[in-house]
Design brief:
The protein is α+β, with helices and mostly antiparallel strands and about 1250 residues long. The chain folds into 8 domains: about 130 residues, Rossmann fold, CATH 3.40.50; about 120 residues, 2-Layer Sandwich (Beta-Lactamase), CATH 3.30.450.20; about 100 residues, 2-Layer Sandwich (Beta-Lactamase), CATH 3.30.450.20; about 140 residues, Beta-Lactamase; about 160 residues, Beta-Lactamase (2-Layer Sandwich), CATH 3.30.450; about 100 residues, PAS domain (Beta-Lactamase, 2-Layer Sandwich), CATH 3.30.450; about 170 residues, Heat Shock Protein 90, CATH 3.30.565.10; about 120 residues, 3-Layer(aba) Sandwich (Rossmann fold). It is built from 41 helices and 43 strands. The protein has a 6-stranded antiparallel beta sheet with strand order 23-22-21-26-25-24. The relative contact order is 0.03.
């Protein structure tokens, strides 16, 4: 199917729409699918744009399919309509077909859809051909009828010897009857005269003989006037096209038989001719009094002949406005001056109606008698008026259409092709490819015929004359090539051409457009009228580019989140921040500063995008050596502390605290090519660490505030971490150099650490005391109860304070004022005891500061390290599949089946990664307080049912025996005014968690009755349950009830934290009821308001590295994930190496021992039975020369250290880059060859 097919689909289920779309995609048709959900939208769509085929569901809410089928059949009889339904019985199917459906297809058998559409389109084409034939037949029939009615010969058709079928006006007029009275009547309707019987006998004789038959018969017509006619019957045998019939003609020959009565018979003949001309005919002399008129004059004027003949002048029925012209022509004709022989005028009927008449006048040169024939052309005039109205409407539609239209004459270009063809040229494409200058020459031969206003507006033109003068300004080499391509196709016989191309406006900007050509009917041979339609696609294409840029920014954020983890100094982090912000925003100036809270000023730490640093001098207020300070005033400081992006209204003038005036500031902004200034603080936990100042250059289209805010938030978190680590290091050094002694033991009392002051004071060296008990210092002066009280105090978690009399190594006694406390982990278990001995005032301050800072740093570092490590794994695992299979699809020749499989894997992993990034962005918005809620009236029941349908598919895919139940929403007495997107997100998180932690049973969703203006929703499952002491923990960021669930069930621990944040932002709260093994019920409440309540209250491909031939090598892949193994296997396929696969570490050890052909091992770090690094140690122990490359999703420094210590020769990070992997393998194969 070469042309674009338009399909209209009436369906209420989005999932069924997607299934139908996939079925249509199999045909590889060029089609558009217009999806509507109601009869009203269907009818509007059909009146707006023609469809090639209509697909309709049988059961759509508010949609009577039988009524709509009848409507479609009445208004679009040649439009194929196919019913696509889930279930349908034979009776219903028959009803649909009777009401106008062309076919029906069951949704369970969509394989029939494409054949059904193909067959329906074929039937449509045949039907249109039949309609065309019928129209041409009716036209020919009408032409024959008019011809018959305007000849004097009497003609009639008989279907049998006694029945008339069709008669002409002359025949009917002879009998004094109308055609309508005679057609379909028997011969007896002509009377019971002998002549009528002879007509019947002649017909019988013709039928009997089967040959023509001719006979002279006297016939007595109206007023008993008899005429002698020569009647001829001719039989017609159409065969299978229809039944036999007779063509009968009668020619009046009375005069030839009555020569003796020449005058009388001449009069009679004249009168009969006069009566049976088929038109209104009258005669008069110079006095204009009507001398004779026929019956048609009576019908035309409303006057009886008795009233007209000899009594009235013919001007009695002429319209007053036309009477002067008619009298003028009469006088000229009387005087022999040659008045027109035919013309038009308006006739006044006796009843006052007006008719348009075509008049023909003949003058007898001897008697000066005028014979006038009057033909009623009123219907023709009405038709001409309709055509003029339609032409005006079409012209108005063209002129005011929002789509650009232009009609052009290509005949000059066609003549050029004719001339080339006459010279023997056969391949126009090759010719114009070699002579590009001839393309423009050919294009210049096109003439503009007509165009509309939208065309001029699209290209920035004022009128047609400007277009003709500047036409070459709007064309591009690309559009000229498109013109030649289309012209050649039209020249070769095509009538339609369509292609997307690029033009230019007169202001130089680009226009991306879809251009359609259609040769107007009747102009196909000369191509002298071609309709050109130009659809402006610029907005859509730019939107697609912006979406692509947005996705790239999201990936940029994901990559940056991992990069900042490796930075451990403030200076590096500030430089990293300036570089990344500049990379993200592109054409701009970025100033990154730290904030000195004591001095209340900013210190410039890094700058990007500024070629001349000297322009910063107006910004600065001085500072120490090598330090550039920026001033800060209170309003700007408060704005920065919000952590949100702010715009400085006065630009650089505001930035310099108005140290330079507005005029100078504007001049500087012009010099720097900027027009706006933005700032945003690095804020975390209410603390301001610094700020980023952004000065975008004019025309910067990459400035995306939401992406910038997310990036700055990442940097803020990283700054807090680096500063916290710096504080911990400072405290550690303080302890080491403290003038008081510090001692740390394990829970059993064994010394793990002492500071230099301890050694200096006691005389013991560091190595002498490590692993010993503090009792080595006992003086023997304190009773056993003293130590029992000490142990009871510290074991209970309390701090013990008191004085010791201790003994040094040399036996010397000394007193210490000691403070001993325990250190506990997240589970509440004691991990260490810390003893600080010093002057009571200084010691207490140091102890509190050390413990507070230590616990906070440890917990923060553990949480973030665990979260970021898990986040790294969650990101790199799908990224490995995406990157690997994408590289395979783009860089290697693969079969269609494999390509579809790889594409499916990529799609699933993209969805995983997209959901993860969405969670991170939502969490960032909640943390920074910039989450916006857009409340509208929403349908809670529809949202829950949609979620039910979606997650039922997920449960089925997981193959879990779990039933998902949505309870009746009868508790909802009115609509809910809230943010439907965030409401759906909360429910989705809760349902997703329920599915994740429920292996069998049910998941129930519902609501509770309104209470105190709040409505409560719940998600109840029969899953593993949660301990009560973890109820608050699971709503904290990065937390799960059990740390092991992260690896068992996956996830980042952000879902419930995001849900709680959303519920609270929406004005509600969230809580749960649960017990281990008994399932969980999560509740969340929201303000129960309706809209009324609220209102009342007020790419280019990367070339593939040359693939080596490793057909003599065998590689072992240890990988428990089949998708990852398939990526590796496919990526190394063209090297022709033999690839072996094991899923466990022990299998890898065994295979390396048993197979001497193995040349190299690719080892996954995480394996189910044993650590991949443990398996590497075993392999290296038995085969020291065996190269082992670790493959891992973790890239933390400590992870790399563990990989090297295990004996791995190298590592490669997921997602795997195969060119890098091939280079690494080549290196080791050469090294160990």
């Amino acid at each position: 199917m070469n042309h674009q097919m338009h399909i209209l689909l009436i369906e209420d289920d989005p999932l069924d729409v997607e299934l139908i779309r996939k079925s249509l995609d199999k045909a590889r048709w060029h089609y558009t699918l217009n999806w509507v959900r109601s009869a009203e939208k269907m009818r509007k769509s059909l009146t707006r744009e023609a469809a090639d085929v209509v697909l309709t569901d049988y059961s759509v809410p508010g949609y009577d399919v039988r009524e709509e089928l009848e409507w479609l059949s009445a208004h679009f009889p040649d439009l194929p309509v196919i019913v696509v339904t889930g279930t349908i019985d034979e009776g219903t199917a028959a009803t649909c077909l009777n009401n106008g459906a062309w076919d029906y297809v069951l949704k369970s058998n969509l394989n029939r859809l494409l054949p059904a559409i193909t067959q329906a389109l074929s039937r449509r084409d045949e039907k249109r051909k039949q309609i065309g034939l019928e129209v041409r037949f009716r036209k020919k029939a009408e032409e024959h009828r008019l011809l018959l009615d305007h000849i004097d010969l009497h003609v009639w058709f008989q279907s049998s010897p006694h029945r008339l079928e069709t008669v002409n006006r002359a025949f009917a007029g002879f009998w004094g009857k109308s055609k309508e009275e005679l057609e379909g009547a028997s011969l007896e309707a002509l009377g019971r005269h002998e002549g009528v019987q002879e007509l019947a006998n002649g017909a019988l004789e013709t039928v009997k003989s089967g040959h023509d038959y001719e006979k002279d018969i006297w016939l007595t017509g109206q007023e008993n006037r008899s005429r002698l006619f020569r009647v001829k019957w001719t039989p017609v045998h159409p065969g299978t096209a229809g039944e036999d019939y007779l063509i009968c003609t009668a020619r009046d020959i009375t005069e030839s038989r009555e020569q003796q009565l020449a005058l009388e018979r001449s009069e009679e003949k004249y009168r009969r001719i006069f009566e049976n001309t088929g038109t209104a005919t009258l005669s008069f002399f110079d006095d204009m009094i009507i001398r004779m008129c026929n019956q048609n004059v009576e019908q035309l004027t409303g006057y009886k002949r008795e009233e007209l003949i000899g009594k009235m002048k013919w001007d009695v029925f002429i319209h007053p406005d036309d009477l002067p012209m008619m009298l003028k022509y009469h006088r000229e004709r009387t005087l022999g001056r040659g008045a027109p022989a035919s013309y038009e005028f308006r006739l006044l009927h006796r009843d006052g109606s007006v008719k348009h008449i075509f008049m023909q006048v003949a003058v007898d040169p001897e008697t000066r008698e005028r014979i006038v024939s009057l033909a009623d052309i009123t219907p023709i005039k009405e038709y001409q008026k309709q055509l003029l109205n339609q032409e005006a409407e079409l012209k108005a539609m063209l002129e005011y259409s929002p789509i650009a239209h232009i009609y052009e004459d290509f005949s000059g270009s066609k003549i050029m092709l004719d001339e080339l063809a006459g010279k023997g040229l056969t391949d126009f494409r090759e010719y114009f490819g070699k002579h590009p200058d001839k393309k423009l020459e050919c294009r210049k031969k096109v003439k503009i015929m007509n165009l509309n206003r939208a065309f001029l507006e699209l290209f920035g033109l004022q009128n047609r004359e400007e277009l003709e003068n500047r036409y070459l300004e709007i064309v591009t080499p690309e559009s000229i090539s498109m013109f030649m391509e289309g012209l050649i196709l039209l020249y070769e016989g095509s009538h339609y051409f369509e292609k997307q191309t690029r033009y230019k406006r007169t202001d130089g900007s680009e226009v991306f457009a879809k251009t359609q050509w259609l040769t107007i009917s009747g102009h196909e041979r000369d191509l002298d009228l071609v309709a050109v339609t130009i659809h402006d696609m610029t907005a859509q294409i730019l939107a697609a580019e912006q979406e692509k840029e947005y996705q790239m920014n999201l990936k940029f954020l994901s990559d940056t989140a991992l990069d900042v983890l490796e930075i451990d100094t403030e200076d590096d982090l500030y430089r990293h921040a300036a570089g990344n912000i500049h990379s993200l925003l592109g054409d701009c100036i970025v100033l990154v500063s730290s904030y000195d809270a004591k001095e209340n000023h900013l210190v410039l730490r890094s700058c990007e995008g500024l070629d001349d640093p000297g322009v910063l001098e107006p910004f600065c207020t001085g500072g120490g050596a090598g330090e550039t300070r920026l001033p800060v005033v209170e309003p700007y400081l408060q704005d920065m502390k919000t952590g949100r992006l702010i715009k400085l209204d006065q630009g650089i003038s505001d930035l310099t605290m108005k140290q330079i005036g507005r005029k100078e500031a504007d001049e500087l902004m012009d010099k720097l090519n900027i027009e706006e200034v933005y700032g945003m603080g690095f804020v975390w936990g209410g603390s301001l660490y610094g700020c980023a100042t952004i000065l975008p250059h004019r025309g910067n289209r990459k400035f995306r505030p939401e992406i910038l805010e997310a990036l700055v938030k990442q940097i803020s978190i990283a700054l807090q971490r680096v500063i916290a680590q710096k504080q911990i290091k400072t405290l550690s050094e303080a302890v080491s150099h403290s003038p008081v002694s510090v001692l740390i033991t394990d829970p059993g009392g064994k010394i793990e650490y002492v500071n230099p002051r301890f050694c200096q004071l006691t005389g013991y060296s560091y190595d002498e005391v490590i692993g010993k008990n503090p009792s080595i210092l006992k003086s023997g002066e304190h009773p056993q109860e003293f130590y029992a009280d000490l142990w009871n105090t510290i074991l209970s978690g309390k701090e013990w304070r008191g004085e010791f009399l201790n003994r040094k190594k040399n036996g010397e006694f000394f007193w210490e004022l000691a403070s001993i406390s325990s250190v506990r982990n997240k589970k509440g278990e004691i991990t260490h005891f810390v003893s600080v001995k010093e002057d009571i005032t200084e010691r207490k301050m140091m102890e509190e500061e050390l413990r507070s800072a230590k616990e906070k740093a440890e917990e923060s570092d553990q949480l973030k390290t665990a979260f970021l490590a898990n986040l790294s794994h969650e990101i790199r695992t799908p990224m490995n599949a995406i990157s690997g299979f994408s590289e395979l699809i783009s860089n290697f020749d693969i079969e269609d089946k494999a390509r579809k499989e790889y594409t499916s894997i990529i799609k699933n992993n993209v969805n995983l990664l997209s959901a993860l990034i969405d969670d991170i962005i939502d969490f960032s918005k909640l943390e920074s307080g910039i989450m916006s809620i857009d409340s509208v009236e929403c349908d809670v029941t529809s949202i829950m049912n949609e979620l039910k349908t979606s997650y039922q598919h997920e449960i089925k895919k997981l193959d879990k025996p779990v039933e998902l139940i949505v309870h009746d929403m009868s508790c909802m007495k009115k609509g809910l005014y809230t943010d439907p997107l965030r409401f759906r997100q909360i429910l989705s998180n809760l349902i997703g968690n329920a599915i994740k932690f429920t292996d069998e049973g049910s998941i129930q969703i519902g609501c509770l009755p309104e209470e105190k203006g709040m409505i409560t929703f719940y998600v109840k499952d029969t899953g593993i349950g949660i301990n009560e002491d973890k109820f608050n923990l699971i709503f904290e960021r990065f937390r799960q009830a059990d740390g092991s669930t992260t690896r068992k069930y996956g996830g980042t621990g952000l879902g419930l934290a995001i849900s709680r944040g959303l519920v609270e932002v929406m004005g509600g709260r969230i809580w749960l009821e649960s017990a281990p093994g008994q399932g969980s019920t999560f509740y969340f409440s929201l303000p129960y308001e309706s809209a009324r309540d609220v209102q009342a209250a007020g790419g280019r491909k990367v070339p593939v590295t040359e693939v080596p031939d490793w057909s003599n090598y065998t590689f072992l892949v240890a990988e428990d994930n089949e998708s990852n193994f398939l990526v590796l296997k496919a990526g190394l396929r063209d090297t022709r190496a033999t690839i072996l696969w094991v899923k466990t570490g022990q299998d890898a050890i065994d295979l390396c021992r048993d197979n001497e052909d193995i040349s190299l091992v690719l080892m996954d770090v995480q394996l189910p039975d044993m650590d991949g690094l443990e398996a590497t140690r075993a392999i290296k122990s038995a085969h020291p020369g065996m190269p082992v490359i670790a493959q891992t999703a973790y890239t933390m420094p400590e992870d790399m250290e563990r990989i090297r210590n295990a004996g791995c020769d190298d590592h490669i990070s997921k997602p795997i880059q195969f060119r890098l992997l091939i280079r690494k393998i080549e290196k080791f194969l050469a090294k160990f060859a």
